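Sat 14:20. Reprocessing the chain from the morning session after the first attempt stalled halfway. Input below, unchanged.
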Amino acid sequence: MFTNVADTSGQGNNGSLILSTTGNTSTTTVPGRLGQALNVDGVNDYVKLGTPAGLAMNATNSFTISAWIKLSLLAANKGIFVRGFMNSSAANTTYHLAVDASTASTLRGRVSDGTTVTTLSTPNYLVARVWIHTVLVFDGSADTFTVYKDGVQASTTATTVNLWDGDAATDRNTAIAASGSGTAGITGDIDDVRIYSRALSAAEV
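Finished this time. Tokens:
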């Protein structure tokens, strides 16, 4: 069992692998898209990142979330990478990549400035038991919010949001494979999660 998940970028945003409330001792690594992946059960397995300042994106007003995901079960309202709350008002939302709250095949990205949210929903994006390279790009300079699937743009929308980082610690709780508080987790495998404090170009994706 891994008790710590290292940030190989060197930025120090290390996480703790939470395997149920009692601490599961069985391995959760499986063959991934690039080396080994984490397999999570959708109940109480996730990577807890805490509230790292390095994942606050309000300074650059841009970010990119990139991950390989293979869901073994499609279910609505599940977190993939979440900072703050998933289904709340603008005042409690920071940014996230998740499965839509009502449609299990729809991917959702959301950002907030504390007053206004921009939501980018991409229908028919998620497919069970298939590796998908998922990239969400928020570009505050270009006022665009874009999602890619396997290197190809899947959807985009305009946005006027200027990112904030919440006004309470709970707004900054950050997790991989679940909501910021560790609930609403995906079921399946996740690999090579990358977070950039800038907007990647289409060529970089």
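The mean pLDDT is 91.
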